Amino acid sequence: MNLLTVSDLSRNEIDYLIERARSLKERHSKGIPHHPLRGKTLGLIFEKPSTRTRVSFETAMYHLGGDAIFISHRDSQIGRGEPIKDTARVLSRYVDCVVIRTFGHEIIEEYARYSTVPVINGLTDTHHPCQVLADVLTVVEKKGGYRGLKVAWVGDGNNMANSWIEMASRLGFDLYLACPEGYEPERGILERARKEGTSRIEVVRDVEEALRDADVVNTDVWASMGREDEREKRLEAFREYQINYHVLRFAKEDTIVMHCLPAHRGEEITDEVIEGRNSVVWDQAENRLHIQKAILEWLLTGERV
To answer: Looking at the whole model, is its pTM more than 0.90?
Structure first.
């Protein structure tokens, strides 16, 4: 089995991963060793820079008793034009699982087609499933669950927005996305999510409408990796889409504010908010480690729901 998108998972599987991550987090906090992946090796193939994804996966593998090998795109034959299918078939004979962080989603789909070991999406331009799983783990910790919640997304309809849409469809919470015209999420993902799910998934222009009575407020950078050349254009298009205390007053008083990081303080979110009473950003970042452990254990030990 692979984990390329949130839609690869059933609701039961998502619930299992969330609860397993909570259990592993508690075990880690008590210093109780847990090494189910002793003798296993994880390969990380990254075409994009990373802090949280790389460190959380490497640390997760070590905590579980395994090893991790980082493979930079520029330092391997992949960067010299070796076909993806060749790399996939060879690495399948060396490692037990692969995390790929790349640009086009079709790249990871092709890799998964030829791999005989599990492939995990560490981020593509279209999806970021592991991050959103960690985010839902954070929501469950802070809100006691996800049922009946209203989640607001403010900003770019990027890979994070797409994965939140799929998560809302799977879990049934309402999701409102405030995006400028021309920067909406993928239409096909949105239409499929609405067809498969029962919750309200709305794309709006007005930040106030999205935040009104929201339990969770989420945002991301306005220019994702690979779109830095659009920075000035995006700064103009998104200037009314900043998370600050002026707009946060429309959300519930106990709303939690999330950001997958890195943050451009003063652009999509103010320093005051990210450091403020509603922010759960640092817990959210920590939870990358615990959800990666749950994912790796699940894929590599044969545990199934």
So the answer is: yes
